[in-house]
Known about the structure:
About 35% of the residues lie in helices and about 30% in strands. It is α+β, with helices and mostly antiparallel strands. It has one domain (about 1-105, about 120-145). A hairpin with a 2-residue loop joins strand 2 and strand 3 (about 95-110). The longest helix has 16 residues, at about 165-180. The radius of gyration is 20 Å and the shape is elongated. The relative contact order is 0.17. Residues about 5-25 have low confidence and may be disordered.
Amino acid sequence: MVLKRIFLLALLVVIALPAADAPAVIVDLKKDPSLAVKAYLSLDQKGARLDAMSWETLRPYINWTRELSWGIVVVIQDYEIIEDIKAWEVVSLVDVWIPVKFKVLGAMDWDEAVFYPEPHVEDVRFHVKVVGDRWRIMEPILPPHVGQTRLVNHVREAMLQETDAAKLAILTELRDSLRKAQAR
C-alpha cells in the first residue's frame, strides 16, 4: 500500500512539473490505474459484453474500438486484481502491467450451447496506459469472462423467449450444467 501511494505521488509530481519543452498533459493520474481494470472486469463479470448495447459501457476503460465476435464465454467464479504494486510491471509513470487471477469454472460454447467444465486459475496481465485524459486497458483483448450466476440468468432469459421445444431442452441442459459448475 505504501509503494502504491509513492507511485501515485510520483505521478502527481510528474503532472505538476511538466518539462519546459513538453506540452502539459491534463490527466487524472491521481487515480490508481488498477481502478480501470477493476471497473472493466466488474462490468465484464456482470455480462456487459454479452449484448452489443451494453458493450458501450466498457468504452471508457479500453483502447480498442470494437468488440470481436466470440464463439465462447469464459465462465468465472471470481477474479482478483493483484493490488501489490511490487507485482506490477511499471514501464513508466503512465504505462503499467497489472496482474489478475481468474477463478475459471470452464467455457460455454455459444454455437453448440454447451458448457465445458474446466476449473483452473487463469493468470492474465493487463497493460494499462494513459491515453488522452485517463487510464485505459491496451491489452489483452480476451473473450468475455462472465460470472456464473449472470450467465445462468442469461440462459434463463433465453429460455423464456424460446418457443421451439428441442432448443428449449438444449438451453435447459445448458442452464443445469452451468449451475453445477464448481471451482477447484
